[in-house]
Write a structure and sequence with these properties.
Blueprint: E1 2-6, H1 10-21, E2 25-29, H2 33-40, H3 51-60, E3 64-67, H4 70-76, E4 79-82, H5 97-109, E5 114-118, H6 126-140, E6 147-151, H7 161-166, E7 171-174, H8 178-188, E8 198-201, H9 203-234, H10 238-246, H11 267-280, H12 286-299, H13 301-309, E9 318-322, H14 337-347, E10 351-355, H15 360-367, E11 373-375, H16 379-383, E12 388-391, H17 403-409, E13 414-417, H18 424-429, E14 433-435, H19 442-446
Parallel strand pairs: 1-2, 1-4, 2-3, 4-5, 5-6, 7-8, 9-10, 9-12, 10-11, 12-13, 13-14
Helix pairs in contact: 1-3, 5-6, 9-11, 9-12, 11-12
Bound molecules: uridine-5'-diphosphate-xylopyranose.
Function: Catalyzes the conversion of UDP-glucose into UDP-glucuronate, one of the precursors of teichuronic acid.
GO molecular function: NAD binding; UDP-glucose 6-dehydrogenase activity
Pathway: Nucleotide-sugar biosynthesis; UDP-alpha-D-glucuronate biosynthesis; UDP-alpha-D-glucuronate from UDP-alpha-D-glucose: step 1/1
Amino acid sequence: MKVTIFGTGYVGLVTGACLAEMGNHVVCVDIDAGKVERLKQGDVPIYEPGLEPMVKRNREEGRLDFTTDAAPAIAHGDILFIAVGTPPDEDGSADLKYVLAVANTIGDNLDRYAIVVNKSTVPVGTADRVRAAVAARLKARDSQVEFDVVSNPEFLKEGDAVEDCLRPDRIIVGASSPRAVALLRKLYAPFNRNHDRMVVMDERSAELTKYAANAMLATKISFMNEIANIAERVGADVELVRQGIGSDPRIGYHFIYPGAGYGGSCFPKDVQALGRTAHANGYDAVLLNAVEAVNDAQKAKLFELISRHFGGDLKGKTVAVWGLAFKPNTDDMREASSRRLMEQLWNAGATVRACDPEAADETRRIYGERADLVLCDRPYEALEGADVLAIVTEWKAFRSPDFARVRGLLKTPAIFDGRNLYDPVAVEDAGLAYYGIGRGRSLRDAT
Ligand code: UDX
């Protein structure tokens, strides 16, 4: 089938590459000419396992093209995906200016039936706004062309995006037109494994499904972080509690890992935006607001523990930080917990020696050259001259360190384990102080 995708960010690019991989002819449109040029050379601007070879292969085989030119791209596609960004505006609501700009462009150029598919995470009611925008532009030029608007949210995870896209758990299609549903069934048929993955519903329900999924996952994490904070105070180990509750299939083991807070481009933004939507519709989303507040406090947790360890005086101290990206297998620093930690450390007069397998360049881009930030290529190099070590992201490279070596390099050997990666006893046996998240010892050791 012929597909056009607006936006070559995570969602647009991965969707485009995967649809091409399944044999469709895909044209991706972006307003950023530099990015389009790079993509044409097969140079993928984001770190996502498996994506670059897939882009290169499909380009070479003629199924994937990139352009800044919207008009021919609209003429190409029977299905026009909108996968542009919806950044939060000043009050935390999703800003639809890019989505609506694409809708306008489609309305200005469409000259035969097509389906306009929203893949961006957009507030409930956006499908109606897109429909109205396209219709208004068609009307302005007296066009009788028919079109349908569909909500088809994406559930890919960074780091597993290609895999998630090729083998989705579910394909949510919010559509009221049987013609659109039939076309999307055809497009997505190759993605069904064993059984039909497509769940068809109305547009508003599809839009809310995306927010509900992310808000539920964020709630699980904040819930566990709250239990961790209680565990810490009552002398329990949240890691044992986690295993204890995860064994109940109604709760499950996924997304109940306590830690230094959730980050990324989705959870913080979507929880906030859903709260705003609720508020705008006359409902105070108490639980969602609490999920956000717990996460916000959790991002300050490592700093609190470190600060308390040093009696509140961090001036002249050096903290080694392992892990900068908001999670492993990505170079994405959006809303990363490491940022809060580093900024708090710098404000307190400390220096950071940081190591991350992928996110060093992104960190440099965000913070520039500064005397109180040293980016190191290797984990142990970050420990040289450091007082203590904080773990923020659970990359494989940090999972089983040589604790004796760590102790030998640190001036005041202590590990602040923001992802509960280590066995506290093993760390303490190696002669280091151990602080975890909700492990019943952080407060005791610190006081
Ligand atoms: C998320 C959703 O998983 C995905 O379905 C949606 O489409 C986009 O948002 P992503 O942002 O890539 O994907 O990251 P995810 O793997 O979900 O992790 C989000 C954050 O939660 C990370 O900062 C991670 O460290 C944190 N997390 C995750 C926890 O703190 N504890 C957990 O148990 C799980």
